[in-house]
Amino acid sequence: MPQLGETVAEGRITRWFKSAGEAIKPGDNLFEIETDKVSMEVPSTAAGVLAEIRVPAGAVAPVGAVVAVIADTMDAAKSAQPAAAVRATPAPPSPLLTRVAGTASFAAREPAAPSATAVKLDPFFEVRTPARNYGPARLAGGATITPLARRLAADASIDLSGVKGSGALGRIHARDVEAVRERTAPVTAALTGSTTDQVKSIYRDVPFEELPLDTMRSAIARRLTAAKQTIPHFYLTADVAIGRLLDLREAANATADKDADGKPAFKLSVNDLLIKAWAAALVRVPNANAVWAGDRILRFRHCDIGVAVAIEGGLMAPVIRRAETKSLSAISNEMKDLVARARARKLDPSEYQGGSSAISNLGMYGVREFAAIINPPQATILAVGAARRQAAEGADGGVAFISIMSVTLSCDHRVVDGAVGAQLLAAFKSIVEQPVAMLI
């Protein structure tokens, strides 16, 4: 099971393209996997015969687990010993996918610790630090813990100091962490809310339909609960006049070149202009173009803007990289492509991980004003409401109706203080109300 982003611990195999006994060559699609974010096809990197499928379609396996065995020849495939069926639930960590030569035995091995100095910080960005050992860690009592178990324990806030591992010499594996989580589930439910049975008992006389959580909805619930519990949010709201922005959009779209079929080279949306304006505002207030990194703050040279996109069953936030350097037409075309592939769940992890800030726009649904939850480790997110006509006093004392839009900035107080957040929102308001500023 391949690694699809540092925060992805498991994947569900939705279908197999090859059957046991079939010949394969490098590049042939073997199986399709689904995580909480994407659905993608996994190709073979070796030629030979698919000797054995160990994880059937519909089953979930952890990253690094053996899902199939590739043999050099049909004879080697026939000699491979069949493995027990995999349950459709997360399994303990297994050896990495091993290519069998002849009748060689299957030697279990742990993933090698990376020698590069790239360190992934959960969940969305990468920094460069001195090389570290990411192999099994040793606890104070002398027991070791596998990297996957460390990650799962950290996600569930489980203290492993008193846990006896089931591995050799007391080594703690992911299955041990899962066992602790199951034992502490009643306590967790008491702290975080009612259990499933308690909620169902309240509605026992009311017809209802139970909808099991898929991987995406589970991830959204887990991450946003953690975000609200651990990030000290504060909110700033402003009304922004968007008349000139709308005029700029109309003029730009009217001048777009057309191809032989009369299709314009681009068609700007209000959201495209807001992405550019938000990037320009972050350039003006660089102290806000930063994220929280545990024991430090990372400040960025470029503005990578994540944009919330509603998809079936949840949402994703594909990222426009270096938005401050791109033209409006480039942002528009790139955003259309990202949205289409996000809704098809065909984005690569590199296209939705990272980002120094984000925008969530619910104006198209008629929502006047709302406050968005920060997506960690980011420190800001701008919530955009619907445009409306409102009476306002002009410079000459007269009254006229203008187009107004309410925006709310959510800030992580660990990174962005009140004054910095106010400066950022003021810069955005100034750019939107004088949009020529984003073009020069």
Give a topology summary:
Layout: E1 10-16, E2 23-24, E3 29-34, E4 39-43, E5 48-53, E6 60-62, E7 68-71, H1 74-79, E8 99-100, E9 118-121, E10 125-128, E11 137-138, E12 144-145, H2 147-155, H3 174-192, H4 196-202, H5 215-230, E13 233-241, H6 243-254, H7 270-284, E14 290-292, E15 297-299, E16 305-307, E17 309-311, E18 314-316, E19 319-320, H8 328-343, H9 349-352, E20 357-361, E21 380-393, E22 399-412, H10 418-433
List keywords for this structure.
440 residues; alpha+beta; OB fold (Dihydrolipoamide Acetyltransferase, E2P); Dihydrolipoamide Transferase; Chloramphenicol Acetyltransferase; 10 helices; 22 strands
Give structural notes.
There is one protein chain. With 440 residues, the protein is an alpha+beta fold. It has 3 domains: 10-100, Beta Barrel (OB fold (Dihydrolipoamide Acetyltransferase, E2P)); 136-202, E3-binding domain (Dihydrolipoamide Transferase, Irregular); 219-439, Chloramphenicol acetyltransferase-like domain (Chloramphenicol Acetyltransferase, 2-Layer Sandwich). The protein has 10 helices and 22 strands. It has a 6-stranded mixed sheet, with helices on one face. A 4-stranded antiparallel sheet has the order 4-3-1-6, with no helix packed on it. Strands 2-5-7-8 form a 4-stranded mixed sheet. Helix 1 links the parallel strand 7 (68-71) and strand 8 (99-100).
